[in-house]
Amino acid sequence: MKVLCVNAGSSSLKFQLYDMPAEISIIGGYVEKIGAKDSFYTIKHEGKKTEIKRVIKDHAEAVEVMLEELVNYGAVKELQEIRGVGHRVVHGGEKYAKSVVIDDAVIKDIKEFSKFAPLHHPGNIAGIKAMQKALPEAVQVAVFDTAFHQTIPKIQYMYPVPMKWYEKYGVRKYGFHGTSHKYITEVMQKKLGKENINLIICHVGSGASITAVKDGKSYDTTMGLTPLDGLMMGTRSGSIDPSIIKYMIDEAGMTYDEVDDALNKKSGLLGVCGFNDNRDVEKAISEGDETARLALDMYVDRIDRYIAEYYLELNGEVDAIVFTAGVLENGAETRESIINGLAPLGIKVNQEVNNAIASFKEITSGIITTEDSTVPVYVEPTNEEVMIIRDAYKLCK
């Protein structure tokens, strides 16, 4: 069975076609800058990457281009071979604790949850509607980023604000990157042969979140009502004193929207040192840039703080700490700095193994701590697309 994974953003469309149940990736690609004059798309097939410049006015046209190329590359002979489509949807509120087949009621809910994810949901909805029109016979499935975190206890997800804010407006911690955290949990359950596993999963890429997994379920996570909360990230501030917002409005004459935009797009590593990519930060440090060093030290410090907090939440009963996503799958220096900060917990880095692991090297995963460490630290590549495809396949059947 052919199943398609679709991740539609505000101005992008990523896709991957799989042969199921073998989970074999046939073809993938992404459309960028939808609606702009310099839009383009890239196709990845049989180890080759091809980029084509083309004006693509909206998501409907992006879907047309994608489906045309699936046929052109021989991934499918006819579109009817695609039996299911799994859509990544950022926010499922409290209503969705698992993936669901999309109908009118689900689309209505996704629109309603746009208030929590205004940057993401319009693109999600546009992608869904375009796919429904293009493949009316295929089963369309919504896979929610927030779903895995619906097991978090109330003591963890409630904020100490007026109860009415929660009861009437849904103000609470929802958490994100759930598809990745769920994937890593399942991988580690198999690796360690243990169902009721306790983990601290560090998903650190451009966006970043850490999740405490207790007995195989999400128990706490760093992102909150929105993906802005928690860790310092590439361009997001993470947790700050909320009074800063009013202070900057009063003192700098900024509007609320300008402050919000700055906290989401101009803060984090970028705000402190001018670079949002971890590789650029490390390069600047090697050239003696003290501001870049400060930025990375702040970044690592916040990761260590949350690991320590979740270590206590799990009563010190942690089967493994797992590093995943772009920065921690590849950044040996950053991984080492994080582990050095965990020395009071009895965790020590194995430099030789750590330096040998990266997604672009022969070894892509493994334990990067010494044998006498109190908790092993694993590097494990994530695969959100596979999780989306698996859920879509189950519901297609």
Share of residues in helices: 25-40%
Specify the overall morphology. globular
Work out the strand percent. 15-25%
| Helix and strand run | EEEEEHEEHHEHHHEEEHHHHHEHHHEEH
> Stretches where pLDDT falls below 50 for ≥5 residues?
none
The major sheet is characterized as: 8 strands, mixed
Number of helices: 15
In short, what is this structure?
With 397 residues, the protein is an alpha/beta fold.
Can you give a write-up of this model?
With about 400 residues, this protein is α/β, with parallel strands linked by helices. It contains 15 helices and 14 strands. It has helices spanning about 60-70, 105-110, 120-135, 155, 165-170, 180-190, 245-250, 255-265, 270-275, 280-285, 290-315, 325-330, 330-340, 350-355, 385-395, and strands at about 1-10, 15-20, 25-30, 40-45, 50-55, 80-90, 100, 140-145, 200-205, 210-215, 215-220, 320-325, 365, 375-380. The strands form 2 sheets. Strands 5-4-3-2-1-6-8-7 form an 8-stranded mixed beta sheet, with helices on both faces. Strands 11-10-9-12-14-13 form a 6-stranded mixed beta sheet, with helices on both faces. A hairpin with a 2-residue loop joins strand 4 (about 40-45) and strand 5. It is globular and about 60 Å long.
Break the fold down into its secondary structure elements and pairings.
Blueprint: E1 2-8, E2 13-19, E3 24-32, E4 40-45, E5 48-53, H1 59-72, E6 82-89, E7 100-101, H2 104-112, H3 121-134, E8 139-144, H4 154-157, H5 163-169, H6 178-192, E9 199-204, E10 208-214, E11 217-221, H7 243-252, H8 256-265, H9 268-273, H10 278-286, H11 290-313, E12 320-324, H12 325-330, H13 332-341, H14 351-356, E13 366-367, E14 377-379, H15 384-396
Helix pairs in contact: 1-3, 6-15, 10-11, 11-13
